Amino acid sequence: MRSPLRTPLGAVFHAEVLLNSKRVAPYALMILFSANAVLWWGWGPAVERGWATNSDFYIDRLFGGFSFTTLPLFIAVMMGDPVIRDFRIGIDPLIFSKPISRFQYLLGKFFGNFFVLVCCQASFALTALLLQAFSKSGMIVLPFRVGRVWR
After folding, report:
1. Which residues, 6 or more positions from 108, have their beta carbon under 8 angstroms from its beta carbon?
2. DSSP state of 98
3. Domain that holds residue 38
4. Residue 115 pairs with which residues in a beta bridge?
5. How many domains, in total, are found in the chain?
6. How many CB atoms neighbour CB 143 within 10 A?
7. Rounded to an integer, what distance in angstroms lies between the CA atom of residue 29 and that of residue 124?
8. Nearest residue to 124 (alpha-carbon basis) of 6, 29, 16
């Protein structure tokens, strides 16, 4: 059995992740998403309504809204440029001379950019996790925890 990275789709995925690691956009998105977490931590509805900033209810509400608004928009932004870039610099004949279909090419580009975007969005979760250690006046914070215990 072949490794998934040894398939044509895996090769496009791997190349796209490597290209994105050298671009400025993913790092700018990480900063933007972390700033968004800081904004919702200190000046969001939890402070105004008396909710705990690390309660299950607020975290669920926060991540639901964040992923719903950012995922479709930013995947479209990050996906549009790589395909156009390949055609603009003229490497499309080289790509399609290999045993890869257009579907595999587009799917590899999509999944590569989707993976990079999920890694960028992880900065939102990491920032929210780290902000549990801090509080300001008027803010309710439950004891520090990483996961919820199901009973």
Report:
1. 8, 9, 10, 11, 12, 13, 15, 16
2. S
3. 20-133
4. none
5. 1
6. 7
7. 10
8. 29
